[in-house]
Amino acid sequence: MCPDESRQHEAIEKLTKQTLTPQSVDGFWPSWLPRPKPAREPSSASPSMPALSAGKSEGLKQARPGRRSRKAKREIPALLLPPRYKVEIIR
C-alpha cells in the first residue's frame, strides 16, 4: 500500500469514529412558514385527550366494540391499497 492510500485509510477511519452533535441552523427554516413552538412540558398533549376520550365512548356504545359487521363498509385510502386494487377512473 502506498503512503497516499494509507493516509486516506487513516483519514477515513478517523472520520468514521467521530460523533457529531445535531446542529440546527436558523436560516434553514423557510421564512414563509411559522416555526413550531417547542413543547415545554408533557402537558402540551392535553388538547388531544378529549378526542381520545370521545373515541373511547363511541366504542363503548356499540354492542360488540371490537368488531365490525360484514356489511359495514370501511373506507380505505387509495394510497394504502396495493396497485392492483386501485380503481381506474374511466373518462
Verbal overview:
The chain has about 90 residues and is mainly alpha-helical. About 30% of the residues lie in helices and about 0% in strands. The chain is built from two helices and no strands. It has helices spanning about 5-15, 50-60. The longest helix has 15 residues, at about 5-15. The chain is elongated, with a radius of gyration of 27 Å.
Mean pLDDT: 67
Strand fraction band? under 5%
Query: Which blocks of ≥5 consecutive residues have pLDDT under 50?
Result: none
Using only C-alpha atoms, the radius of gyration works out to 27 Å
Q: Which word captures the global form?
A: elongated
The topology string of helices and strands comes to: HH
Structural class: mainly alpha
The helix content, as a percent range, equals 25-40%
The main pleated sheet reads as: none
Q: In terms of quaternary structure, what is this?
A: single chain
Overview in brief:
The chain has helices at residues 3-17, 49-61.
Give the SSE layout.
Layout: H1 3-17, H2 49-61
Keywords:
single chain; 91 residues; elongated; mainly alpha
